[in-house]
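Readers outside the structure-tokenisation community will struggle with the description of the input data as it stands. For illustration, here is how one protein appears when written out as sequence plus structure tokens:
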Amino acid sequence: MTAQYLVDIILKSDGTKLSGELQSFNQAGEDQSPSFSIAGEFTGEQGTVEIFDQSGAALGKAELTLANGALELKMLEAAGLVQETVPTQATLYPIDAAEF
């Protein structure tokens, strides 16, 4: 059985530094992760970010890759709520927040 998740990432960049938030939602609406903080580095088309809970505890690491107008997310390490609520791989497409 495969669960379908929606993943929302808000990224801010300062040169090669990335920061932002990550949250995932079960498409059935039954499960939602808390908002996690992310921080890392991006060079060229690829970067690595660490994932933190709201208290600052490290809960995982993910690889981000830009490809064909999308952002590929691949979890490298996960613990706690990140392991339970964030999919191991996802393809994210940009949206216009004004549409919602």
